[in-house]
């Protein structure tokens, strides 16, 4: 008996240990990296303005949850809660005076990434960095297949010597000196120069990916946003046809509709979206316009978003993610109630941030894309005829326009570009509401466990529709009878009047003729 029980106990114990191991693995996969981002200033009015927001979007594209703040706001013990810390020093005039940060950083032993001026002593020592400062000059920046010549830099601490892995290359247009764009070892990384709008914006992604230890290869996607029910839907279908014929997979980010979803205009909107889906297009739900269509009440927003997702799904239109300006992910209310249904996002640059419940920590997504324009990418020279994918998932973004000539120019530019676009449906995306479970994987769309036919026939929608509900009329029959009686009386009266007029006319005519005969 003992010999029989003991193996079972060993087997059960082994299975429990294996189960615990796998559960820990899955938990670690699902839990995003949480990084602390500290900066001395937002560099308003300088060439470095916007680099903090750009870095936040770049970190989001790697699935990182970010907590941001200034050095002055730092509180004692904060560093100990993070294994990844990034510091941005935008100003040479500002110094760190927060003694809590200084003391905590001296004993910090996890990964640290420094950007800009004033390199910490520990980073200099670990990377054996020697730098020299160029007050103002022009440099050529190259990395991977990209090159941007004659970038004007000021107070530029270029790397003279360092130990570690080098990234990119700076060449001084004035002196011809070469120095790496960035350097990294197992724990530390350093980049001296980072600005929005030039090649350093993309060069940062190469260093950051390795420092974050991200192994997944990025892809390049195409997305059209600002699609409304009142957009030129015929032109949208034509755009879908042209991209389909050109073999270019694409996405559209559609504005939600929260009322009157049974109107013909909405039905035509849904039919067009279904047609776009059948032409190898993927659908994203764009966040609503804050100033006009969104409620201050979080649960109301949640109900509105859920209702629109269900309207799409019930019609056979399968949304795969959400498109939003980045500030939505830094707002507790928007993130929970507006974005909580989605695990995939395309984050656009902030245009007009209007917060409801701003927070310093972002909401991380399993899949996130770094949005940019094709013009931004095409300003750089490139060495290869076919573009390599960037380190992160990126989205070439356009606003959909009702100007057909402008769309034709965009299509020609895309067809002539050196970019190979990826199909969004081949990624893993999930959306869950109370009524519907939506997913995609390896090119297949699924709704509640059933594959969705993406070639569903297009149905025309009648324009005949009663836009107001007819009220019940209790005296309508009586009024109809009265109306008919009045009509008969009026007709009879007109006939009698006409008869009398005819008799009077004849009598007058006879009298006139008799008078002339006399």
Low-confidence regions: 1-29, 461-470
Our Rg estimate from Cα atoms comes to: 34 Å
Strand content: 25-35%
**Global shape:** elongated
What is the number of helices?
13
Query: What is the strand arrangement across the widest sheet?
Result: 2-1-3-4-11-10-7
Proportion of residues in helical segments: 25-40%
Biggest sheet character: 7 strands, mixed
Q: What this model shows, in words?
A:
The protein has 518 residues and is an alpha/beta fold. The protein contains 13 helices and 23 strands. The chain has helices spanning 2-30, 51-61, 99-106, 121-127, 200-212, 233-245, 264-278, 290-293, 298-314, 332-338, 374-378, 404-416, 476-517; strands at 34-39, 65-70, 84-89, 111-116, 130-143, 146-161, 165-167, 169-172, 178-179, 182-184, 188-191, 220-227, 250-254, 281-286, 319-325, 344-348, 367-372, 381-382, 394-399, 429-432, 437-441, 444-447, 450-451. Strand 3 (84-89), helix 3 and strand 4 (111-116) form a beta-alpha-beta unit. The longest helix is centred in the last third of the chain and has 42 residues, at 476-517. The strands form 4 sheets. Strands 2-1-3-4-11-10-7 form a 7-stranded mixed β-sheet, sandwiched between helices. Helix content is 36%, strand content 25%.
